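INFO  loader      accepted 1 record
INFO  loader      residues=144
INFO  predictor   begin
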Amino acid sequence: MNEQITITYVGFWPRVLASLVDTAIVTLITAPFMYLAYGEMHPSSDSFAVGPMDIMINYLLPFVGVILFWIYKSATPGKMVIKAQIVDANTGNKPSVKQSVIRYLGYFVSTIPFGLGLMWVGWDKKKQSWHDKLANTVVVKSLQ
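INFO  predictor   done
INFO  writer      dumping tokens
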């Protein structure tokens, strides 16, 4: 028997909520490490990066963590809270490692022009942001 699966794309506001959850988690993990590495100096610095530990803690650690969540769970904890997952736009399967890396790096492209690429979710028929389009992914309500 062929079962019809209805795909529900996740829109702008639920994705904002997921992003806030993820940001809180990343901050709770990275802030103590930054304090251990730099003490009181870090919050008062205007530099993009204070030192090598800053790059490791604030850029490399979140990159690795997010990619691993996407590979193994098809979602970050924030997406899990809203019962959403990231899938390949053509197959509906988990995104590949390549798609995950492109999607992560695509966040920078999405945010640079005043966040327009992130807001694009609100106008796109598949609710794709620019980083989704670059990686050929969509965010859908979890099928489980």
